[in-house]
Amino acid sequence: MWEYTEKVRDLFLHPKNVGEIENPDAVGEVGSIVCGDALKLTLRIDRDTDIIRDAKFQTFGCASAIASSTALTELIKNKTVDDALKITNRDIADYLGGLPREKMHCSVMGREALEAAVANYRGEKAPVAEEGTIMCQCYGITDKKLERVIRENNLHTVDDVTNFTKAGGGCGSCIPDIETMLSRVWTEKVVKEAKKPQKKMTNIQKIAMVQEIIETEIRPMLQHDGGDLELVDVQDNTVIISLRGTCTGCLMSDVTLANIERKLKEMVSSDLTVETE
Description:
By secondary structure, the protein is α+β, with helices and mostly antiparallel strands.
């Protein structure tokens, strides 16, 4: 059972800005009832100032979809179109006090509806209808959209991709392609970062950064599947850890270590390596 914040529960039971603006200045429609989630966003925009004066939504979806749609409309009202476009799906989730990772695709859908509405207002092609090859046939998601969401939200696992986009959550035939994309995206980033001049850190700074990334990025991911780890030591550029929980003796421990090392290289230093005690 998913844990919803009080804000999510309140905005599900008492949503704001529900409905459709008559003769709107902008309309954005994303998703599909067939796929389980759909959102229509209508805007009233002052064309002299580009300020969004009103925003309403109609959605077919779960509690998170309703709450996320309310959050989106509240966040963009009285902002200029350009300022509204700076709002990310993370901002929508933060407004709600957080969303279960399995429901983050609802915040992504809100962001996409806004992009589609702004494109409609400006007479442009909606960016949501992204060009590219359909990778997930079940939900009609292109490779271009998947790569964008992976990069914007720093996703590293297939489960994360499914939580944020639904891709891979149907028949599962696209999972190997998602894994290939994840590997390519983050390998490219590590190579790019490795080419940048590395800022010299003291060992204390390095240990602090490693500890922070482990606590905020790595442990939650492992704990989600019943695993865990403990930071034992950092010796020069070698990070020594001890695997815990279901990670202990796991046949996939080499893959887990490789993912941990990739994360630390990406977010701390490309010189780091990871070993177990």
